[in-house]
Amino acid sequence: MKFQGLLALAFCVLLTGPAAAQDKKDAKGPKQGELKSSLDKASYGIGLNIGGGIKRDGLELNIAAMIRGLKDGLSGADPAVSEKDIQAAFLAFQTEVRAKQEMKAKEAAVKNKKAGEAFLAANKKKKGIVTLKSGLQYQVLKQGKGKSPKATDQVKTHYHGTLMDGTVFDSSVDRGTPATFGVGQVIQGWIEALQLMKEGDKWRLFVPSELAYKERGSGQKIGPNTVLIFEVELLEIVK
């Protein structure tokens, strides 16, 4: 997490002022049925987002200390910690979090690499799977009769992208709208496959991480060294 992210978190926490100024007897917060007004629901939503972000980022925070800081800020009480010490703590915390995230990413990269190699090795033995020199694998689901695009062409496609466990990370099919883009503007596995396909073809692609997002991954769902699976239908070459 970046230092700016910590400041944003602190800013979001301060936005919960009206709900945070509860007496001790309300420390557990209102029950679900008591969240009736827009203020109640918005306050709860802010807290839910903050909590979800803390959990998602794997942050280890002292919640009691965070609530104390919130209350002191709202009441105007003298800070229990100097501004200088807070800034130093933010920097130390940032360094610690980054180190943990880097270690976690390295462990995931090794794990995903082994899992991906095992998956592709088993997959290439299945009937109908074609494996290219690059390591890209594909299966023809429907054959078209049109032309094949070049790297400089624009194409319109329908696609559905999943991880090996079936998790959907992107899908024009689910959105109900085909995607148009340049052949040379996508991941390497797509660039190679699209130039082999013909208009009307529908293929299932099994893309090694080396032909996708490699060790960097992409977004929340695609981790480092992750094999990607796509069902791609080449609708047309866009003139």
Q: Any chance you could write out the topology, listing elements then pairs?
A:
Blueprint: H1 3-14, H2 17-20, H3 38-56, H4 63-75, H5 83-123, E1 129-131, E2 137-142, E3 154-162, E4 168-171, H6 172-175, E5 179-182, H7 188-194, E6 202-207, E7 228-238
Antiparallel strand pairs: 1-2, 2-6, 3-4, 3-5, 3-7, 6-7
- Our count of helices gives 7
Q: Name the average pLDDT.
A: 87
- β-strand amount: 15-25%
The end-to-end span amounts to 44 Å
From N to C, what is the helix and strand string?
HHHHHEEEEHEHEE
Rg over CA atoms: 25 Å
Global shape: elongated
Number of structural domains: 2
CATH topology of the largest domain: Chitinase A, domain 3
Largest sheet composition: 7 strands, antiparallel
Outline the structure in words.
This protein is α+β, with helices and mostly antiparallel strands. The protein has 2 domains: 3-80, no CATH class; 122-238, Chitinase A, domain 3, CATH 3.10.50. Helix content is 42%, strand content 18%. Strands 1, 2, 3, 4, 5, 6 and 7 form a 7-stranded antiparallel sheet that branches. The longest helix has 41 residues, at 83-123. The radius of gyration is 25 Å and the shape is elongated. The two termini are 44 Å apart.
